[in-house]
Amino acid sequence: MRFLFAVLFVLSLVIQYPLWWGEGGWLRVRQLEKTVADRQAVNSALKARNNALAAEVADLQDGSRAIEERARMEQGMLHEEEIFVRLLTRPEAQTQHSDTPQAGSSGEVTGN
Question: Under the phi-then-psi rule, with left for phi > 0, alpha for psi from -120 to 50, and beta for the rest, what region is 101?
Fold first, then answer.
């Protein structure tokens, strides 16, 4: 009886091997399900990106506002009625020295 039990146990292990560790086994199925879930997440992110790009293309083809906005932001272009103003700031080192009068100067500016 023990011999029969041992043989049946070994046979059940032999039969179980392909189920768990074989090419189409449960572990492989779990791994493939995880891979599919990861790919679906990547695909959904790429679909969202494609939809945004398609909307931008449609906007560029149909409307002039998107073209104008892109020209302003990327090329620094202005509309006909606008005036470009550039504000220059002094570096900190110059502002510290310019506040104090230099030796030998009266601090007066004379125009020639």
Answer: beta
Measured distance CA(98)–CA(95) in Å, rounded: 5
Residue 47 in this model has a pLDDT that exceeds 70: yes
pTM of the model: 0.44
Show Cβ contacts of residue 68 under 8 Å, excluding neighbours closer than 6 positions.
Answer: 79
Query: pLDDT, tens digit, for every residue of 85-103?
Result: 778 888 775 555 555 555 5
* Sign of the C-alpha dihedral computed for residues 65, 66, 71 and 74 taken in this order: positive
Q: Give per-residue burial for 11-29: e unless 16+ CB within 10 Å, then b.
A: eeeeeeeeeeeeeeeeeee
**Which pLDDT score is estimated for 102?**
54
CA 14 to chain centre: 50
